[in-house]
Amino acid sequence: MQALVLLLWTGALLAHSSCQDSAGSPQEDAPAPDTTGVPVEEEDPFFKVPVNKLAAAISNFGYDLYRVRSGLSPAANVLLSPLSVATALSALSLGAEQRTESTIHRALYYDLISNPDIHGTYKELLAAVTAPEKNFKSASRIIFERKLRIKSSFVTPLEKSYGTRPRILTGNPRLDLQEVNNWVQAQMKGKIARSTQEIPSGVSILLLGVAHFKGQWVTKFDSRKTSLQDFHLDEERTVRVPMMSDPKAILRYGLDSDLNCKIAQLPLTGSMSIIFFLPLKVTQNLTMIEESLTSEFIHDIDRELKTIQAVLTIPKLKLSYEGEVTKSLQEMKLQSLFDSPDFSKITGKPIKLTQVEHRSGFEWNEDGAGTTPSPGLQPARLTFPLDYHLNQPFIFVLRDTDTGALLFIGKILDPRGI
């Protein structure tokens, strides 16, 4: 009955998948096939903007990476900023010959973009999403084995489009770790803890992607309403965590009947937003939700959610992650980069990808820009109270509204930490 009520009163019932209905048949408004029998899809004007189209491509890579990473650790939290990993791979492709370049470009969905200047557009995208008002920092680096002679024809475009220079290891593990830590600290303004893990021996190419985000809500939470409340890990186990509350929160909301989840979107300053996917039951597997995530699906959600007023509770979060995503990338049809790639545009010596590291930090608390909702947000009139309590496992997506870029994605099974 709830889905029916929501459909009647908020118009917020979402259709899963932009191309097919739940029965798998084409929707009535699907584009008609052309004479070749191939469906002709009218491209959304949003995705016709080169920066937005590129953002959609690498975001789809990000959703792929998240799915693999989540599948490798189904019982653990996942925190990823896929953009930093995508940036490192895209930068590395500058040094790849055609076969290897195509492998990277397919993983990043570049093969679906007719853009003669991918790397120039990437520079625009990075500038857009790391603007100071976004509160989002992202950086990537390519680290090479000691004594490697690198061609200037690779370094110059790398600096031009990605604003970074490659690093060549000294061979001294302690000094190399210190240098990498210093670089991370400088890029992240000290927001990410120094690593204590040594640079492994035998590195040929090491990619490093780092990111940090500290969100500021458009409407801040009253810290006096924050209290310890139950978070249901599953049907039997609960933990007490600090939960922020707003009895009259203005948010955008929808119910997806196919995915059996309630979706809410909260605005952040700097044209950013977080979209939450909350299963209807604490025992529900998150896999179906995860499988649905694409740039296009998230864009459709952004258009279809309705502004409402609700009783909202949300856990305070401060999460960090440091580790490898090497195995995840190997499972994403990128194994050849670790076996016998052709990076002859970088150096004359045969080199291959050895390791991909990711460090990230993510936090939100009560901080916000104002105490009252934006006057432009007029909630739909409801005849019943609506609650949205993030007090059980959920998925969140941090998205840049201007470009549609996926900046962070998380699976929160336990808000106390990764």
From TrEMBL:
Keywords: Glycoprotein, Secreted, Signal. Pfam families: Serpin. GO terms for biological process: epithelial cell proliferation involved in prostate gland development; negative regulation of angiogenesis; negative regulation of epithelial cell proliferation involved in prostate gland development; positive regulation of neurogenesis. Residues 1-19 form the signal peptide. Residues 20-39 are annotated as: Disordered. Its main location: secreted. The keyword Signal applies. This is Pigment epithelium-derived factor.
